[in-house]
Amino acid sequence: MKLHAIIKCAACLVLAAALTFAGEGKWTPQQVLQLDPAWLKKEGLQLPVSRLWDPQRGTGLLAAAVNIGGCSAGFVSSTGLILTNHHCLFSLLQEHSRPDRDLITNGFLARTPSEELPGKTTRVTVPRKFTDVTRIIEDTVRVSADDLARSKAIDAKQKSLVAECEKTPGARCRVAVFDGGLQYVLIESFELSDIRLVYAPPRAIGEFGGEIDNWMWPRHTGDFAMARAYKDGKPYQPEFYFPISKSGVKPGDFVMVLGYPGRTVRSLTAGEMADQRDYWFRLRADIYGEWIRILEETTKGDPAATIAVASTLKSLNNAAKNAQGQLAGLQRGRIIEKQAAREDAVISWAAQRPQYAKALAAKKELDGRAAERRKTATRDFLFQAIPNGPLALKHAATLVRLAAERIKPDMQRETDYMDRELPRLRDRLERDQKSFSLKADQAVFASYVNRALKLSPEEHIAAIDQMFSANVEQTVARLYSSTKVTSLDERLKMFCETTEQLRARRDPMLDLAFALEPELRAYQQESKTHDGAVARLRPEWRRAVIAHAGKPVAPDANGTLRVSFAHVKGYAPRDGVIYTPQTTLAGMLEKHTGEEPFNVPAIIRDAAATVNPEQVPLDFLADADTTGGNSGSPTVNGRGELVGLNFDRVWENVANDFGYNPDVARNVNVDIRFFLWLIKDVQKADNLLSELK
Q1: Omega into 29 within 30° of 0, i.e. cis?
Q2: CA angle 96-101-102, nearest 5°?
Q3: In the prediction, which pLDDT does 447 show?
Q4: CB of 585 within 8 A of CB of 566?
Q5: In angstroms, rounded to a whole number, what is the distance separating the alpha carbons of residues 117 and 203?
Q6: Phi, psi at residue 562, to the nearest 5°?
Q7: Which end of the chain has fewer CB atoms < 10 Å from its terminal CB, N or C?
């Protein structure tokens, strides 16, 4: 029977079966040890739980999943090879691309180690120790402390713990906060800063379907790329890595998705969720959508500018479409209404138990604070958007803040400006030049200013109002023609200058940053006060929620190592429609139009002519609990073998950040068998096949 026929039959059986497995939960390594081993074995785990995580050593197979700059990845060889998504190494491709060597379009393959391409800002962190420091941090806060003092005390203790941790050579440490302060964990990782690009397919494969197919199913995208980690000039030898599975997966198979999910908001109250919906996501969809249009229009017909903005445009497109999906999913699934109903159940339960009186008061205050923050939500979004907006403004604000922070003792500085961060901060200021297009940046800046000028009187930004009281476009043009912030050489000089030296330059972009600085400081003070209140209130409420649940509850994603257990499984997105859980090369060829984003490269079409494309698996679905940051997550079978890479969620599941819905909770994975076919039959990369064994 042909593969696609098997898939269709099996998918219907899987959909019809009443599976008892629930994929909800991004479990920490420590929580995995609390799950019932017999249950995990029944679901499909063939390894002892202790192989996943050894509490005595604080490591295990889960540590083969690593963090790579906001994405996840996995070691796949004893010689430092790392597999992740194409879009996770896109900025590295862009870094080495130019019109006469367009690696973004054509892809890249290093056939020898000497051909591998280094990344200026690409880093990998390998976890090696987790320590619960909740009591230590809680004991640093005075009982009488107000919310701002609480926030500062927690921040100071976190810095102290990190500084002590990083006395270990090569250590990169952080204190992770779970559910607003319910738990604090000191995470010690080993950082690898020498990461070199080994392989990336042509963009037409790595991004097949483009924004049309993004967040959609069925999918036919080869979203993978490979790098190698080096240590002391030699390939890094990881203790754990995932062997490649050649047998792949079929419907109903057990899989695990390991990685570093970035942020979910399931611990928020319904009132706080409504703020996320009404302001954060609506503004992101609107403002980022406008910036996308600007970048596309201002670089059209200019190959160099197109390459320059490619990485930024990719990130904005993903964020904007994600926001649209969040909004649609919240409405379709009535997620906030369901959260309110769950809260009512907890409130009724807690009202009968005097020990949870503080929890009820905490929940009420959290809702009140959410309502108060609505008054400045649009202004706050514009402040938060500076790092993602025009590079000239971002750099000027960074340089002004750096000069002010550098004169403070290291432990009293903001975290981003401590000595440990300065080398990577300088690298980013240098690396950003590869992403700079004057015309595009100037147009995005004008858009930002016009947005700020339309704020309500209660939210207005005085520095913007004063500088741009006249014609915005003319003022912006004069500013960009006069500033030196956009010059890499000058910017690197500014990196070492004092506040007085920066002011003496009388650079208009720096002058704007200086004018903005008091308002940004005031906003950040407000944010710290809010953080202190959350640290006081959220744990009280969450303890009641967890007690009411009466079972383990996975904390919200916070960029730390997690694992989700799942099965390969299709779904029914709407009445009368059933999606099978696997696609093949045949589907990619069927979508081929000869034009982007459905232009299958000739080398793929030629290779496909020598095989039965229905027998070449491409992508597959599972019901894993994933979110942003899980891009590049290794998807492994019950034996710990790599069967795929997570790279997306389906459109109906985008609002999964607010709540898990088993009916539509599906993550999208590229099948490792497509990767193997591509490097074997298309690229003839025998060197990689041999290394991967």
Answers
A1: no
A2: 80
A3: 97
A4: no
A5: 17
A6: -140, 165
A7: N
For the chain, counts of helices (H) and of strands (E)? 28, 20
**Tokens read off for 281:** 């996501």
Amino acid 56: pLDDT = 83
Amino acid at 330: L
Catalytic residues: 87, 223, 631
Please report where in the chains the tokens 């160099």 appear, as a residue. 304
pLDDT recorded at residue 22? 57
- Give the Cα separation of 463 and 82 in Å (integer): 46
Q: Tell me, what amino acid is at 519?
A: E
660 vs 469, more confident: 660
Q: Convert the pLDDT of each residue in 124-181 to its tens digit.
A: 999 989 999 999 999 999 989 999 999 999 999 999 999 999 999 889 999 999 999 9
- Scored b (16 or more CB within 10 A) or e, 24-35 reads bbbbbbebbbee
Report the sign of the C-alpha dihedral through residues 527, 531, 533, 538, in that order.
positive
Contact between 247 and 112 (Cβ < 8 Å):
no
Q: Three-state DSSP class for 313?
A: helix
Kindly state the tokens that stand for 506: 């009388």
Parse the chain into domains and list their residue ranges. Answer: 3-121+194-262+574-692, 128-191, 270-545
d(CA 411, CA 294): 41
Whose tokens are 């079978």? That residue is 637
The tens digit of pLDDT for each residue in 98-107 reads: 999 999 999 9
Q: What integer is the mean pLDDT of 566-579?
A: 96
Phi/psi for 291 (5° steps) reads -65, -35
**440, 415, 435, 436: which is closest to 425 by C-alpha?**
415
Contact of 235 with 228, CB cutoff 8 Å: yes
pLDDT digits (tens, 9 = 90+) for 255-277: 999 999 999 999 999 999 999 99
